[in-house]
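Handout, tutorial session.
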Amino acid sequence: MNIIKPSFTIENIDGEQILQNIEKYGRICYKSESKITSTSAKVFIANLIRNGHESVLEHEKVTVVIVCDRGVSHEIVRHRIGSYSQECVSGETKVRKNLTIKALYNREVHGTPQDKTHNRTISLRSVNKNGTIIPNKFNSVFYAGKKKVYKVITKLGYELKCTANHRFLTNTGDYIKLKSLVVGSKVMVNGRPCLLSISDKSLKHEYIKNCLSTEEISNKYSAPQSTVRRRLKSLGVFVKRLNDKNKEKYNKNHTDKSFEKMRRTIKNQYKNGRIVWNKDIKEYENESVKKQANSLRLNHHNNGFGKENSCWNGGPKGHVEAQQIKAAIKFCELCRSKKNLEVHHKDGNEENNLEENLIKVCCSCHNLLHHGWHIGIKAIADKITSIEYVGKEDVYDIEMKTPFHNYVANGFITHNSTRYVNYNKREIEVIEPLFFEENMFKYGIWKKAMEACESAYNELIRKGSTPQEARSVLPNSLKTEIAVTYNLREWRHFFKLRTSKKAHPQMREITIPMLKQFKTLIPIVFDDINSD
């Protein structure tokens, strides 16, 4: 358990520029733009506040990231004229095949009654604790303002634009913020679908009890034979050539038995003196034999090798050439599998066999590269290849229904707006309450209670509870991080309420030093608020 103090960080702001902007907007109301000077802003804004004309302050906003306990964060979000966010994605993010999160939000907020009803009935995608992609409903979708966003690209080609605080499911099972991930980090994405729609038990029955071959099973269930073989291998029951009705088709050369059968057949055909029509006839004796001989000289493979052969067409092309170029690679470059390897052309042009356009992959990854994320049913690990800042954009987030607090965004398994962290894999962080600092006896009681909560949480995890189920025993002192954005008028209202002597002591512990910083960064606007 890690005990920490509450804190806050005010996003970079230019106080003087904010004052100038407010004056410009305010003087439009009074038609007095001509009176703007380099020093007129402070006097003008002081008069606005004194006369109660604070609506002009709503044109400017400030964001603060606050680290506090859950009790304080619950009080903060009661101020409804503001934006609260821990993680958000760009509006163009797809949450279904042809549906973006922005369109989902517009239907919810600005749509017709039919649109809102449809939002209640559609399913998005979540991942369960077994890593399987499942349908899941959502509680709400909300707009979180305009924020700095970064584009994340993976080796499989997935792309997502999101804020630095957005959490991704990683291969360790934790949801990690983008700002803590780097190029090379592995995140979970929506995998390819299973093409064989049959249970493992039924597949075993068909193969072992019904003695069907892999070819017969693939025909019966309309699935590729390679998929059937992979499933049987994963179940540990696959035996090469088991149940095959014509085992000879797998042999380049005949077995001794089949070879003798072939010889007997040929001998029987000529038993009564039948001979081939051109037996012992020389080419100069027969025009047909002459043509046949000339054709063999020109076209038969033994008239030379490589470029010396009359059939030479410039060497291997397409996938044959691609396989030769990547022959030295003995594993899938995406998942490291060594089975069922193929070569994928990144640009889709099979004639473009430049080495940088080729990637050696297993059959599963190859199928994934040729299909959209929306068809996957399994979460798989993918490596981040690029994280790039792209500017400020409108961002949105979704609150999914319990118990699966995540959703699939552009193929990424991402955390939704309801906190979901597996504390069993790291220390629980709690906020130290200031009112116990001077009383060691009370502080000791509080600390023991926190340790007991942590112990109960870990025990529930060990007994098989999911993190979201187990966190119900975590204390109110649990550390929470929240980004808060208000316009200046709402910040004035916030400070008047939350710095007063009637406010909770832990709230005042944060808001009083925050107000002092606001007074320094943005003069005049907050000078009349007294926190004593």
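The second record follows below. Compare its token runs with those of the first.
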Amino acid sequence: MIPPSESKRIERLVGLCKLWGAIKYFHPYLAYRDDIDWDAALVAAIPKVNAANDASDYAAAVQGMLKALGDPVTQVVQREPADIASPPHESQPSYTFTPDNILVVTIRYYQNLSDFFSARQKMAAIKAEIPKAHGVLFDLRAAAPVSYAMREIMLLAFQSSEIASALSSTPLITASERTRMHLGFTPHVSGMGFPYTSAFQVVDGRRISPAPKAQDIPTVFLVNGWTALPPEALALQIAGKAAIIVEGSASDASLGVKTHPVPLSDGVIAEIRLGEIISEDGAGGFLPDRVIPPAQLPGEGDPALSAALELLKDFKLSETRRTLLPTHAAPMPENAYPEMAFPPLEYRLLAAFRIWTVINYFFPYKDLIEEDWDDVLAEFIPRMEQADDALSYHLAVAEMMTHIHDSHGFIFSPVLEQHFGAAWPPIRLQIIEDAPVITAILDEESAKTAGVRHGDVVLKIDGKDAMEQITGRAKYTPASTPQSLMHLAALSSLAGPEDSPVILTVRDREQRVKEVKLPRKVEYGSWFISQRSGEVVRLLSEGVGYVDLDRVQVSEVDEMFERLRHTKVIIFDMRGFPRMTMGSIAPRLVEENGVRAALFDRPFVITPDERQSVSYTFAQTLPPTDKWRYKGKTVMLIDERAMSQAEHTGLFFEAANGTKFVGSHTAGANGDQTSFCVPGGITIMFTGQAVRHADGRQLQRIGLVPDVEIRPTIEGIQNGKDEVLEGAIQYLQRETEQVQQKN
């Protein structure tokens, strides 16, 4: 049982992770500021969070991390303030004229604006008085902290009343706000040409036309740190027609930039910036004309108000030099810290935080994760901390990734590569009748020399029980389905160092148990090595053609169709990995163009608020072709070796002419991959966009479902039979007989 103090510590780290991750992908500064080392800020905060004795210590540790941003908007905050109304004797908005004919408009209690119609009438009355004034002073110094809802009401009061149109003889343009958006997860590995992008989303500014007979009237906005400053104020200031005076201190938080609260542990809440103001000229931020210290002692009067009135008597604006913002983002490259084979504790937690954050916001199949993703983080924080060497750390990273249940979740780690090996023998294993069986030989000469044949059951691998070895690898193998897990783990179980021999104990077809030795080479591990021999395209019998999609090339498709032109059926063998032929073959299986082939969902991430999750959804159609169309039936042979592009090929064929599937479930992992890195020089892959059948059915974690389920047997393989292919032929014969009987 975890002690309460330890549970609280982990809870605090989970909260820290969520805050750090939300800022990493949504705070605008991190899109272009190369002076902010956000990793270092986290690394410095972790020991302080671990040492926190109470909520106050925790809040201080979190605030210390946020300080690295140099952003007054992003900070630890108190709970949402309770809005207060003005005293009974004050009705706001209110106005009065000074002896110098200065119109003073007072709005200090925003709660009074919640009666929208009453407030609008009062704002209209104020607007009617503006032409009489020599100058206008808006005293917007909030009397107390203001809730987000009341800030919005304040801004709406200015906008709906169109009061700014009476203050300028020329059109005004309010500043825009830009926020971060992500269409999928932009990969950290260069050269991956998949369509995942990040960008700034810029909201248009508003154009304010002058009211009839409007004149340029000197205007001052008096604000403090709690003020909700209307965009109209900044527009007037930029146009040189208004000044902004700050009492005490204020930031562009006063401009109402978008923020987002992140609840942490111990009742601590952090508010983070999501947006930043950018004007038509590209300048950003908030720069007041004057800053006046508040009164310190009774009897000092109101120095800020006095300064504002004095300025209006002799209206001269100081030149405000606002900072130009970069026109586009250029985030700093992610640091994989390759020099840290065994990273210090804080960097190991950084790895867990990166994994949690990327998957939380960008994994399109997060809804298919069985576990609570927050619980996975809480489990692996101590696992990362307890890692006592490089290998245990890298294994923990791999094991954490298994919880996304995605066969695209490949881990590329120099430590794991050295531990498991990066070379394979010239054979392929499949789990047949719950036993690892040699089903493919990639180098006939090496296999013959070693005495290895198709159908040999592998009992031991390098002296260890084969199934135990495979099960051990499965612990660190992300996989979408049980069949994919055992297939990938079986492949991995054979790996070892380059040029090292693998020693297998096998039981052959004569039931003899023997020990064989095969060489390992890196090239044997390629996905693109063909697993079958013989003719790629051939006639199986009169009217029945066969195509091995594991080997046929795009350049051979036309010749393939010509050879099989007069067949009634084509059997496509998709038990492997194709050569990008789906776009050339599928359009020739359907009469019409523009047939929907698959549905895509790409994460469209615009806020850390998971309640506002959206996606970019589109339908993929079969590409057009001007070549003759094949009108016969088609069947596709499938099993767990078919994954990703192979499964997408199945979707194309299914959509084209209702191709029937024969065999067993495929891997259940489809959608272009993307990648990120974590400390230790580790690169992690995962599926970047969701793909479904054309009719919306789920593919991920299910696979293509066979219309006719047939599994090979050990006896069949040993006797040289392809039982799945034979089953497909029998299925076609039955279909033909049924058609003949109906006719």
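Points raised in discussion: The chain has three domains: 1-333, 416-525, 537-595+624-671+692-742.
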